[in-house]
Design goal:
The structure is a homodimer. In chain A, the strands form 2 sheets. Chain A has an 8-stranded mixed β-sheet, covered by helices on one side. In chain A, strands 5-6-7-8-9-10-11-12 form an 8-stranded parallel β-sheet, with helices on both faces. In chain A, 57% of the residues are buried. Chain A has helices at 67-81, 85-98, 117-129, 151-161, 178-192, 204-220, 234-237, 240-253, 270-275, 299-309, 315-323, 327-333, 356-362; strands at 2-8, 14-19, 22-28, 36-40, 42-47, 101-109, 134-140, 165-169, 196-200, 227-231, 255-259, 280-282, 348-351, 368-371, 374-378, 381-382. The mean pLDDT of chain A is 97. Chain A has 2 domains: 2-40 and 341-382, Urease, subunit C, domain 1; 42-333, Alpha-Beta Barrel (TIM Barrel). Chain A is 37% helix and 22% strand. The first copy, chain A, has 13 helices and 16 strands. By secondary structure, the first copy, chain A, is of the alpha/beta class. The longest helix of chain A has 17 residues, at 204-220. Chain A binds chain B through residues 57-58, 60-63, 261-265, 288, 291-294, 304-305, 307-311, 313-316, 318, 353-355, 357-358, 361, and chain B through 57-58, 60-63, 261-265, 288, 291-294, 304-305, 307-311, 313-316, 318, 353-355, 357-358, 361.
């Protein structure tokens, strides 16, 4: 396959030669005339394929305001309306693919309700999507680990079955025992030699304390480059010098940050984090689910939200927003062979735009999406066959 | 014209009878089967038709970070790339119309560069769009009034020429004289019997002082219901009790608030403001211009941003977000004969959705847009003829 006359990230036009699913070489294009913008396959760094209602009839949300309200509501609703994590998860993953996402990290609930059922369904989905989309699954103790007998063992089994990483959540506020929660998470990571991705919504100094505990464990276990903190809202709450010190600690330990750039909440400072050496990437988090009806399987839209959240307006700054849904996501999640250089997997997205900034704010459906050297979508719709 | 079998705001299906451009009556629909959602024409409460680059080739943004950088840059760019406020303004207004916006308030720059040229162009556009879209123009002293000789006189002339309202901006930070700036604005409003809409970005207690001065003048001049503060960021900065006292003062004086719900900035608290009797409505502010490349002429997308900004997730709360781009916008801007009741102007939008919440988060292009009883757009594209 040759993609003729395309501009990689807005640079001068090239022809991209693809061989055996990889980029073989980029040769200068001789053809005159306008060329489409070439992007690497986009990276969804944080979503919940097993929670989404994507493709189902509208569900009326009357949930209470707390995190626990949402956790308990979800369990009730799931039974009542017959949600199927494989079916809705696939619908969402395919919508993502049609919009240019070729690598995706999903958390998958492991709790007393779901036990291993979501894990099994999403492992099946990961297999079914293989070759079109690289999916990572994080075994995620949505309802805590310590407070429910059995969860630690189900997480252990989820990793044995093939989950790519182990998750955690608000170690003080959910399990009410930060040290033992994190020791359980990192213990499982060590046992199975898997990376870690922890949901940390805890605010202010409580969240800061959790960040310190996570950095300590990452360093002590030599897990630098294999630990992600998702959200990390505490870094948005604390005054500059305190947040700086924490971010320096995380950078030194090799802990990356994932943000959904939510409009309603203070978030870690993106530019300062990058200056301090932190990898910061983006994910949608909830998409059309019982937690939140909003958001969309479209990483260019998420990049625009990053731009709006961090007030990025100059073209050079919008390229930073794009980085959070591409290169930084691949680094943070450990997706290999990523990018537009020879040798990289041929995950290629063609967009009608003159530059990255235009691609981000116009969010046009890609003209073409190629995954592993194969055409998987055209004009925002999946290619058949 | 009869719109058959539609659900007004999600209620039971009706047939809407339109006579002479108005809603004549709504009769229960006997037909079985699914019905589209009927919305009133959407309201864009705050935009800048004379600033947009909509329809032009991509312009690379390298502007500095301050408000003054943006003001001065805009003047230079406008000359260099040959922007035409009538042409780009029309492109943006028509894109808005295709997405269901039938009433729109635009600010229009009056400064030493533009003098009355933008006003004249947008008055022409207002006339050209009449019957399809009701446009209000606010004569807007983007660069201040007192600091530039002539601006007060141009504003006076803009109102004489037919601008619908008089604007103002950050009375301490731009003109550095809050009392005389506001006296100039309210003086012009009194002279021409026009309403007021003031851009107030000033933070914290400085913005609070301006709000007090605005409330005092509104009350003293009996202008309740005819004064809008756009942005009002100070109300997002101040602690609950102080913000509450200010909002009660504004409500009592009859000052409404307009917000763009920017993800990067604290904003007035929506639910609390409503409880205190304030009208709060939404606008996009900058759309694809030299100030900000982001945002889109789509009020359902703006409603979703309001929902995300205020963390509105329940269906009942998403209906509040919808209110900010419909009824509250009409009340705040004074658009008359608005709504879905008999006698209202037949500005009707049909969307494929089961309810308001679904319409907001799916943001599908309207199946049909009717303005003043006439079909003006179908499936997201303008109707010809």
């Amino acid at each position: 396959m040759i993609l003729e006359h395309v501009r990689p990230l807005g640079a001068a036009p090239v022809d991209v030669h693809v061989e055996e699913g990889r980029i073989a070489r980029l040769l200068p294009s001789a053809r005159p005339g306008p060329a489409a913008l070439l992007l690497p396959g986009l990276v969804e760094g944080h979503c919940h394929l097993d929670k989404t209602l994507w493709g189902l009839p509208w569900w009326v949300n009357e949930v209470g305001p707390t995190r626990m309200d949402r956790i308990e509501n979800e369990k009730r609703v799931r039974r009542r309306i017959g949600m199927d994590a494989a079916r809705e998860g696939r619908a969402l993953a395919e919508a993502h693919l049609a919009a240019g996402t070729t690598r995706l990290r999903s958390h998958v609930d492991v709790d007393e309700e779901s036990r291993l059922s979501h894990v099994e369904k999403l492992l099946g989905l990961r297999e079914a999507m293989a070759g079109r989309m690289e999916i990572q699954l994080v075994a995620f103790p949505q309802s805590g680990i310590l407070r429910t007998p059995g969860v630690r063992e189900w997480l252990d089994e989820a990793l044995r079955l093939g989950c790519d990483a182990v998750g955690g959540i608000d170690p003080s506020l959910i399990d009410r025992d930060p040290v033992r929660h994190l020791d359980a998470v990192f213990g499982l990571a060590q046992k199975h030699a898997r990376p870690v991705d922890i949901h940390l919504h805890e605010p202010g100094e409580l969240g800061a304390f959790a960040l310190e505990l996570i950095a300590e464990r990452t360093r002590a276990l030599g897990m630098g480059g294999r630990v992600v903190v998702s959200h990390g809202f505490a870094l948005g709450d604390l005054a500059g010098p305190r947040a700086d010190a924490l971010m320096a600690l995380l950078a030194e330990a090799g802990v990356a940050l994932c943000t959904s750039a939510p409009p309603s909440r203070a978030v870690p400072p993106l530019k300062r984090a990058r200056e301090l050496g932190l990898i910061v990437f983006a994910g949608n988090d909830n998409i059309r689910d019982t937690w939140n009806p909003a958001n969309a399987p479209d990483m260019l839209a998420r990049a625009e939200m990053v731009a709006l959240k961090y007030d990025l307006r100059r073209d050079a700054d919008l390229a930073l927003a794009f980085e959070t849904v591409s290169g930084a996501g691949a680094l943070g999640c450990g997706f290999a062979e990523y990018g537009l250089a020879p040798g990289c997997r041929a995950d290629l997205v063609l967009v009608e735009a003159s530059c990255l900034a235009e691609a981000v704010v116009t969010r046009r459906p890609p003209k073409l999406v190629v995954s592993g050297g194969r055409v998987v979508a055209r004009d925002g719709a999946l290619a058949r066959g």
